[in-house]
Design brief:
Elements: H1 3-9, H2 23-34, E1 46-51, H3 54-68, E2 80-86, H4 94-112, E3 116-120, H5 122-129, H6 131-137, E4 144-152
Antiparallel strand pairs: 1-2, 2-4, 3-4
Helix pairs in contact: 1-4, 2-4, 3-5, 5-6
């Protein structure tokens, strides 16, 4: 698929089937994330955790729901979640920018591979708030969970491409 078509096809999925994506497709998505531009080229400041264990995913969703005071499944039953953690960086905010770039690369690659997805920031909060959950995920000690992406097949497939047009207000200087 062409890049612009993948961008136009991508949407945030809020309900997933339980069938798992293939390892080959998952590795393609992960490789796209690893190709993202990272501030000062510090790729070693990032860590990926692939989560496919249903019990762990259920615990993460419950933790997010508790933080957000809701009973909703905040992972939308996604069979795969990739959590991106970061070390502290000398320049404030660059850790979040780096994670955002990795997430967006993965989201576009997933759309290209016809894998539905949604970026879920709550996973980082949930894992940070739950020491047992962080231990279960085996996140290296010097890394903090920041953001994640849910991956899978939507219960209702999305074949619609958004029209590519400027919709955000702007000015030219």
């Amino acid at each position: 698929m062409e890049t612009l078509k993948a961008i136009a096809r991508r949407k945030s999925t809020r309900s997933y089937r339980q069938d798992q994506i293939s390892d080959e497709v998952l590795n393609t998505i992960l490789a796209a994330g690893c190709a993202a531009p990272v501030g000062m080229g510090k790729y070693d400041s990032l860590h990926l955790t692939v989560i496919q264990d249903k019990a762990v995913l259920k615990n993460i969703s419950a933790s997010i729901s508790k933080i957000m005071d809701t009973e909703a499944d905040m992972l939308y039953s996604a069979p795969t979640v990739v959590l991106i953690s970061s070390k502290d960086i000398d320049i404030p905010g660059v850790d979040y920018v780096n994670v955002g770039c990795v997430l967006e690369n993965m989201a576009i690659a997933a759309a290209d591979q016809k894998i539905d997805n949604g970026i879920v920031w709550g996973v980082g909060m949930a894992v940070s708030a739950d020491i047992q959950l962080a231990k279960a995920l085996d996140i290296p000690e010097s890394f903090k969970p920041v953001g994640s992406i849910a991956l899978g097949y939507a219960t209702t497939p999305n074949e619609v491409e958004k029209e590519m047009k400027v919709t955000i207000s702007m000015n030219h200087v």
